[in-house]
Amino acid sequence: MNDCHEMVQDSKGRLILLTNETKNNILIYDTAGKLLDFWGHDFPGGHGLTLVNENGTEFLFITDTVKHQVYKTTMDGKILMTINAPLETGVYKKAEEFVPTETIVDTNGDIFIADGYGAQYITHYDKDGKLLNYFGGRGDGDDHFDNAHGIVIDRRQKKPSLLITDRTRNCFKRFSLDGKLQEIIKLPGACVCRPVIKDQHLYAAVLRSIDMSHPASGFTTILDKHNKVVSNIGGTEPVYQAGVLQPMNQAEKIFIHPHDVCVDKDDNLYVTQWASGKVYPYKFTRV
C-alpha cells in the first residue's frame, strides 16, 4: 500500500480502498479491517474512486492523474470503458493538461469529471462517454476553480445539483447540472477534498488547514443540510459570528493529510490519508 486516496462501501458492506500502489491498487476490507481481496496493477496515479449501481449491478469509476484518463471497471477490475482527455473541447491542447481527480455518475448514467489537477474544467458525458458539456476552468471568477478536487450530486434538495470542491479557495461551489453557478459554501481555513453525502449530512476530509502551504494540518469536517459546520474531527470547534463561519484550523494531531471520508451503513467513518507514512485508513466508530 502506498497513498490511501479514496474509499467507498459496496452493497455487500465491503470497503473498497483505492491506492496509487500498482502492486495492488484496490484493497477490499470488511468493516473490522480484515483484508478480503485485492486487485489492480494499472493505475499509477489512482486518485478518485466512485461506486455506481446500474440496475442492481455495481461498477467503479477510477481516475488516474498519471495516465490522464478515467476508467469504468467491474468490481473485480475488468476495464469496461476509458475516457481520455477531452481534446474536442478545444480548451485542452494535449492530453497531459487533463489531470482528472474525481467523477460522479447521475441516475441516467451521465458522467461528470472534475479535472482538479489540470485545467480545472468540469466535463459532462453521457453513459457511453460522449461529451455533452463542459464548464468552469481555471480563473478568478466565482464560476471558475483553483483545485476542483471533488464532485458529488446533491439530492437533499428538490432539484439535484452538483457540489464541487474549490480546495485552494476553501469552499464548495454548487452548480446546476448544466453548469450554472448557484451557491458558494465558504469554509475558511479548510482545504477540503471531495464532498461525501450520507443522509442529510455532508462530510469532507480537510487536507490542510489555513491554506495549502501548511502541511500536516488537516482534519475532518461535517456539515448539516443547511451547510452549517456541526463538527470538526481533529479540528477547532466551528464558531459562527453574525452567521459567518470563522476560520477553522487543526486542533489535534490526529491526521497528517486526510484525503477522503467513507461513511458506512452504520454511520461509522473511515478516513484515508495521503503522504502520511503509508498509514492505513482510520476508523471512527459512531458513539
TrEMBL record:
Gene3D superfamilies: TolB, C-terminal domain. The keyword Transmembrane does not apply. InterPro entries: 6-blade_b-propeller_TolB-like (IPR011042). Keywords: Glycoprotein, Signal. The keyword Glycoprotein applies. This is 6-bladed beta-propeller. It comes from Mucilaginibacter humi.
